[in-house]
Amino acid sequence: MSTSNHDDTTAAAAAAAKSTPRLFMHVQYKVPGFTDDGGSSAEEQTPKQAIVTTTKQSFDASNCPAAIVGLHPSVEPVKPDPGDYTYSGMHDHGPLPPPKEGGQFAQIIGFVNAAKNVSDAYLSDVIEKEKAHAPLVTSDSMKQHNKRKKIQ
User: Fold this and answer.
1) Of 32, 45, 124, 140, which alpha carbon lies 20 to 30 A from 53's?
2) How far is CA 78 from CA 68, 87, 91, in A?
3) Are 90 and 80 in contact (CB under 8 A)?
4) Which secondary-structure segment (H or E) carries 67?
5) Is 50 helix (H, G, I), strand (E, B) or coil?
6) Looking at the whole model, is its pTM more than 0.70?
């Protein structure tokens, strides 16, 4: 009879796995930018054309681990500093019970953390490219600009 109970439990677990939706998260970044159509100086520049760069990312269990919701096992709970709202494992009156680890919420938190890291890296790259392509403002060009403003 114990074999029958084991088979029933295995069948119930398989049925639950089939009914559990597959978790995933799709992220799409749309970053506006501009292209130069003109010459090298400000007077020779023609209007810039707007472009949009779209990047898509997908996160699921195959490329993103579930997040650790509580403290890492090697970290001791300590009372947080005032204004620090990260999970510390400690409350005003003593240690908190450890949160439930794993499951769908931990997977979703893992997706969001991965998406944030990818987004930060992507936007940092966009900013660096913009800095590299931005015209340098020299003191001479600023003086010319200020003279033009006074004349007008």
Assistant:
1) 45
2) 17, 10, 9
3) yes
4) none
5) strand
6) no
> What DSSP state is assigned to residue 52?
E
3-state secondary structure of 131: helix
Residue type, 44: E
Q: Give 114's pLDDT tier (boundaries 50, 70, 90).
A: very high
Query: What are φ and ψ of residue 47, in 5° steps?
Result: -55, 145
pLDDT tens digits, one per residue of 34-78: 665 544 444 544 556 678 888 899 999 999 999 998 898 888 999
**95, 61 contact by CB (below 8 A):** no
- The mean per-residue pLDDT over the stretch 73-101 comes to 88
* Region of 8 on the Ramachandran plot (φ > 0 left; ψ -120 to 50 alpha; else beta): alpha
Task: Count CB neighbours of 18 within 10 A.
Answer: 7
The reported pLDDT for the residue numbered 59 is 93
Task: Please report the DSSP string for 38-49 in residue order.
Answer: S-SSGGGPPPPE
55 DSSP β-pair partners: 29
140, 42 in Cβ contact below 8 A? no
